[in-house]
Amino acid sequence: MTEAPLLPPPAAASSPAASALLRARRRRRAWRRPRGLLCWGALVAFFFLMNWWMFSRLQDPAARPRFRLSRHPPAAANSSLSTLEEMRAAGKGKRPHQVMLTRLLALAAHALAEAESRPEPKDLWKEPINATLWRPCSDQRDSEASEGTNGYIIISANGGINQQRVAICNAVTISRLLNATLVIPKFLYSNVWLDKSQFGDIYQEDYFIKYLKSDIRIVKELPLELQSLDLEAIGSLVNDADVMKEAKPSIYVKKILPILLKNRVVHFVGFGNRLSYDPIPFELQRLRCRCNFHALRFVHKIQETGALLVKRLHGHMPHLSPLEDNLLGHFAGKSISSGSRNESSKYLAVHLRFEIDMVAYSLCYFGGGKDEEEELEMYRQIHFPALTEIKKTTKLPSAAFLRSEGKCPLAPEEAVLMLAAIGFKRSTSIYIAGAEIYGGRHRMAAISRLYPALVTKETLLSPSELEPFRNFSSQLAALDFIACASADAFAMTDSGSQFSSLVQGYRIYYGGGDLPTIRPNKRRLASILVKNATIEWKEFETRVKKLVQQTKQVHERPVARSIFRHPRCPECMCRTDS
User: Fold this and answer.
1) Residue 61 contacts residue 445 (beta carbons within 8 Å)
2) I need a surface site. Which of 70, 74, 85, 474 has the fewest CB within 10 A?
3) Helical (H) or strand (E) element with 372
4) Is 101 left (phi over 0), alpha (psi -120 to 50) or beta?
């Protein structure tokens, strides 16, 4: 029996034509798979590219529209920092400063576009109703003038215009306490502020002397017989190490009065925050308020230019109100517009405390990588050598911890997210106060993209109008003070800022309940911003509105808190319902 032959394998049994057909089918199947993958890859790449483009627009200053309210081209930037040009030179070739929180910024842009046709929140431009229960009254006097017969007090105040203002009013109060004659205060030159301005360059000397003559005696110079004394040699030179911070009045009576009676003159050098807020006699506290809110008036040069700023921001000359009268004098009374301010004339003032000195001193991190860290460390070594030495020997809190505790100044992108969340429309006119922002145009790109109607004193004033103030940072700060105090709403980004504190106090004292101030709780805001990668806009908006609303509550000045910032107290203001 013969065996059946074995069948050949299929390939061997195929004809040449069948083999060719099979190979063609395999090639087509193999081509379909990569082609499908290629299409999906192209689609994903397209969406990635669009997202990248959208985020990059937030950081690209070249894409930023021009400021809509600008009356003149921006003047050449004039930094108040001695090493800013060195910083720029050192940074050539480095990447521009990076903007943080790009995801939330994109969500904010979308939300602002949707909200433009809706009405703003009703309380956005208003203070709580009970804010009207307080009125100014520190101009009222119940005591006789001090004769100043115990000797002369000189102060040389340090810091910028805000620290100097507090020192002036503390010196007035101490002069009354010690029955001394006050010599017009001097201002120390600072290597940070780089301003040689003295009292008479910023404030009206004769008005100051005349207004306070019913309280203390003030002279412009020491008597000739005392000018030749070596104050250090006779023990009449008192610096901040000799008097503790926020010292009680009893300290001055115990330690300073004997020197004054013996040598007839005492010279305080520095004098930063050297008088407590509590406990202090009622009349002395009222005098301190009277000095700040009534006796210190800007010189005519500052008043006139300040009136121009307010006119261009509101679209008409400032109305003659107690606030404008104090800040602008007779310049507020010219060409008064009839009728009330219309909606389109409202503006929001924002104090961005984000200059390089603040950023460097904070020890915080703002997304700029190694370049930022090296740049700020170089600045600290030059301007804050003591801080640099402390860093070498002491373990300081990390940048992340400082941010979580609300110790970091708000970056422009953090500030703009807060404004968008509480309801300011994209069309809102915004005045930015402050010196040159760290990171410049790149850092400001986010805020100016979301709010294009953004102006500064440099964009509202012509170069010739700004020229008298160049190289005088304190006088420029006075212009910012006027614009912020006169704004329909004011937002501070650093509650520890002396400038913001003084502006807030002025708005409370003279505002009549119509000048709201936005004060974010930075610690709580930081706990919300840290969720940038996941939080949705509605939740972000709700939480930010809640934290800002809680800071708008009206209350009497807490014990030991500054009367310059919290003037709602019997010494400074009176209740209308009592």
Assistant:
1) yes
2) 85
3) helix 369-383
4) left
